[in-house]
Amino acid sequence: MNTQIQYKQYELEDFDGVIKLGNIVHGDNYLDTEKCQKYYDTSFKNGINASFVAYHNDELVGFRLTQAANNWDINEWCSPELWQLQEDQVCYFKSNTVNADYRGHGIGSSLLMLSIEQAKLQGAKAGLAHIWLASPGNSAFKYFKKCGGELVKEHPNRWAGWYESHGYICPVCGPECDCTAAEMMIRF
């Protein structure tokens, strides 16, 4: 199937497809136009875009949103004291999403590798992600670990309160999300 998949850098024209797929996979109100614009703007450093999308027959079937080092907020859900790198050397893997009908064919890994290559050109030495441990079969954690991700720290209730602040509805918990995130890092 990979020979039929077209990969390209994330652009404004991809927003509608990214919003639709993101909300199907991650839950209602996970993405909207404002968030897509923010992630698009923060994907760039030194004129290099680190985010990618995947298409099959003009249908968006996957995306990897990556925020360049120094272009994302290091917050209470991050543990920079454990990273063994300077904060300005770490990009953020915001979201890797693949349509359920296309999983298991290497699309997520391909999107990640494309983003890593661009992040290296931007000057990053590693990428951080908060991996959703409630994904079906814990597939997100298994995928990220297989791609070289190392667990930094687990964060219980990572998305608690997002319904009130973002209107987010978790596909597992509903509005009152108590899912745990695994803070994970891939070193380049």
UniProtKB/TrEMBL annotation:
GO molecular function, one term: acyltransferase activity, transferring groups other than amino-acyl groups
Positions of the N-acetyltransferase domain: 5-188
Protein name in the entry: N-acetyltransferase domain-containing protein
Lineage: Bacteria, Pseudomonadati, Pseudomonadota, Gammaproteobacteria, Alteromonadales
